[in-house]
Amino acid sequence: MTELDPIREAQANITRRAFFHRSALGIGTAALSAMLPRGLSARQDPGLPHFAPKAKRVIYLFQNGGPAHVDLFDWKPKLKELHGKEMPLDSASEARFSAMLDGQNERLCMGEYANFARHGESGATVSGLMPEIAKIADKLCFVKSMHTTQVNHAPAITFFLTGGEQPGRPSMGSWLSYGLGRDTDDLPTFVVMTSRDQENSCGQIFYDYYWGSGFLPSVHQGVNFRGQGDPVLYLRDPAGLDRSTRRGMLDDLMALNEKRAAEIGDPEIQTRIAQYEMAYRMQASVPEVTDFSSEPEHVLEMYGPDVHRKGSFAYNCLMARRLIERGTRFVQCMHAGWDQHRNWNTQLSIQCRDTDAPSAALIKDLEQRGLLDDTLVIWGGEFGRTPFCQGVFGADNQGRDHHPYGFTIWMAGGGIKPGTSYGATDDFGFHAVENRVHVHDFQATVLHLLGIDHERLTYRFQGRRFRLTDVHGQVVKDILA
């Protein structure tokens, strides 16, 4: 007896009911997608958004490694007062930290790296390490009571970006692509760019699942723009291949793929068709979006000299603005280098220098172009860093360990109340104690600003309906404009 290949065997065993179910998902979805207007083509249902959105797009400046909140935005005079003395908190000895703190029993208070000052009419406290952010403090909302559950980087980042601590769930940008559809035919809905400190002091890895589509159709996966060479591989046609020939090849390939889709009803084939088409259009759109020659000199100066270096945080921030101008819905700029266990004395100031001006420039640039009101900008990491010293106190290689119990992020634009500091940690910056904001609360708030009820944006997978916020999350209404 001849063995069937897996696909033929599945076809042979398919029931009548399953056939029509698959056909509805595959062929029917593809046909509907072709007939609907662009803005509706990838939506879960035409009822989205659920209510009038404040924001139309998101730029997430994710700071991998955990910026030290007590050094940057959460001023704690008590730490400076008790600098070098044991932290008088019973919970400090019971809390869970990374394995890099194993064997260290002392919890010696370590005051801020640089002096704090109050800025703007809001009186926001910002470190001297962030002078450009300080200048725009009245445009920002500082959430100083964030807390999370994970003490290690990968699961903590995954939690923030996907709502789950293990890989496999869709990232936030994928949920928005799935729920709200696309606004452009020429660029991806969800783009990711990564950068790191030039000293390569941090060994963190950018995992693909940080922008993966999980169990959603893979058309909603983030597209990673590279920092070297062409942003996307194979952007140029091979020598001797002109555009009309390429177009003809894609048309023939599409016909074959559509024939196959009609035979087996696999929706991923439709994803491949869409990706081939997007790739063809990106051959024209991506070179244009990466060409900064039309940018005014004063704009380039705002972002700083690093804006001309591909793959830098400054370059990625300007790219983010250019992408959202052209219809990209979610841009995720991930910058590593904040993991300062043993190089806090040197690397903290370098990280601030590399990210301060570009972050502030992005806010000012969006505002000047009338884009800030409906663009949500988020700045923050997966956790904060300990208020006490890691390593030998006073040594050249001292640092701070991971700290999930209370830390700061800031947000701007897109319906966020400006000039606000929300929530608080205790006198040592250890625990979030006032208006605590969990990761799922943060995610629910982001979706709310985009006109989405986080409990209603769901996807059925393995017998249950999943959502970004799992079964948790409350919208933080006090920070909404």
Topology, number of strands: 17
The parts where pLDDT drops under 50 for at least 5 residues are 20-43
Structural class: alpha/beta
Tally of distinct domains: 2
Coarse shape: globular
What's the CATH C level of the largest domain?
A: Alpha Beta
**From the coordinates shown, what is the CATH architecture of the largest domain?**
3-Layer(aba) Sandwich
Main β sheet profile = 9 strands, mixed
Average pLDDT for all residues? 88
Helix-residue proportion: 25-40%
List keywords for this structure.
481 residues; alpha/beta; Alkaline Phosphatase, subunit A; 2 domains; nine-stranded mixed beta sheet; two-stranded antiparallel sheet; 17 strands; globular
Topology:
Layout: H1 6-13, H2 16-35, E1 57-64, H3 69-72, H4 77-81, H5 90-94, E2 116-119, E3 124-127, H6 131-135, E4 140-147, H7 153-162, H8 172-180, E5 190-196, E6 223-225, H9 243-264, H10 267-289, H11 297-303, H12 313-325, E7 330-336, H13 344-368, E8 375-380, E9 384-385, E10 402-403, E11 407-412, E12 420-422, E13 424-425, E14 432-434, E15 437-438, H14 439-449, E16 459-461, E17 464-466
Question: What report would you give on this structure?
Answer:
The protein is an alpha/beta fold. The strands form five sheets. Strands 1, 4, 5, 6, 7, 8, 11, 12 and 15 form a nine-stranded mixed sheet that branches. Helix 9 packs antiparallel against helix 10 and helix 12 runs parallel beside helix 13. The longest helix has 25 residues. The termini are far apart.
